[in-house]
């Protein structure tokens, strides 16, 4: 029997789609890795990228303004480099077939757990926590950020392979173990904020995976009992004392305005002083607002650009989330939907907690504002996650 032929057609101009037909065994692994019948950057979500870069641009401008007369001056230039590197990484990962990544997710998961263990052994200690591995050139790498992407893929792979519509309790336990092991390793660093960002990945997975309302009620009750035990049972040592104070001080920061409630109080003053159109930024430039270029960048932005500016940023985030959800609806398969909605869950959680923290509705947990807060690890994770979304979108017409 003759070997199957490979036929291709280049319709019209060189910028048109290139169509390939033939056997994957003939084309080899290279074809499977970069193409799935056909992939075109015409299907890339350029509109989504445009809104994302607008948010990044606002972040760079605010980082420059907030650090202009401090020892962190020039941080906005580093942020620009991270954004450019993130965009390049996004294009690279969008060209790799996400199905192949899902097929090899067990190896990525093992590597993720190993990197978190390496942090506990070899990580640099800063402010009482080991969260970073020192890299050549003086840069620091935070593995717990990219582990979120691995968990999104792992959860997507797990629930996509479940054939039954309703989840069983063993399914819950396995999903909890997938997310729980890295979460416990991050808590051991300790890094409560990043560990909490793993939770929405699991929640979105079980919700889309077919959770029944009775199961959800049981899970909520068990979670409430667990939280109560952490805070009120002396023998339970999951969280350190300062972490417990941080989680509870936001409810009444006036009791300790110079201690645990200082950050929340200064942040609320900064947001309030911005008024409708913004002010001079006396809280930010007077060094009253702590770390205005990272965790409290939204407070600094609201102080300088007012309610209108803050509302504009939230509107941009809303558009990005809606665009992501639309891409999830057009995913070519169940796994693709889980991948995109996992990104939506993490991004939504980051925005909700960070903005809520700034205005005093959420505890201070050190969760940055995506795409705006200064930090290479956070920026790279977001662009890699967006690359996975583009990956799924570019293959939505592949059967």
Radius of gyration: 23 Å
Shape: globular
Q: Taking all residues together, what is the mean pLDDT?
A: 83
Record field, number of beta strands = 5
Element order: H for helix, E for strand: EEHHHHHHEEEHHHHHHHHHHH
How many separate helices?
A: 17
* Count of distinct structural domains: 2
Largest sheet: 3 strands, antiparallel
Strand line-up across the major sheet: 3-4-5
Strand content: under 5%
**N-C termini distance:** 27 Å
Helix content: 55-70%
Structural class by helix and strand composition: mainly alpha
Low-confidence stretches: 1-37
What does this molecule look like?
By secondary structure, this protein is mainly α. The protein folds into 2 domains: 1-38, no CATH class; 45-394, no CATH class. The protein has helices spanning 24-27, 29-34, 46-66, 75-94, 98-103, 105-122, 143-160, 169-187, 192-196, 199-208, 213-232, 241-249, 262-273, 282-285, 297-329, 334-358, 376-394; strands at 7-9, 19-21, 124-126, 129-134, 140-141. The protein has a 3-stranded antiparallel β-sheet with strand order 3-4-5, covered by helices on one side. A hairpin with a 5-residue loop joins strand 4 and strand 5. Helix 6 runs antiparallel to helix 7, helix 7 packs parallel to helix 17 (376-394) and helix 15 (297-329) packs antiparallel against helix 16 (334-358).
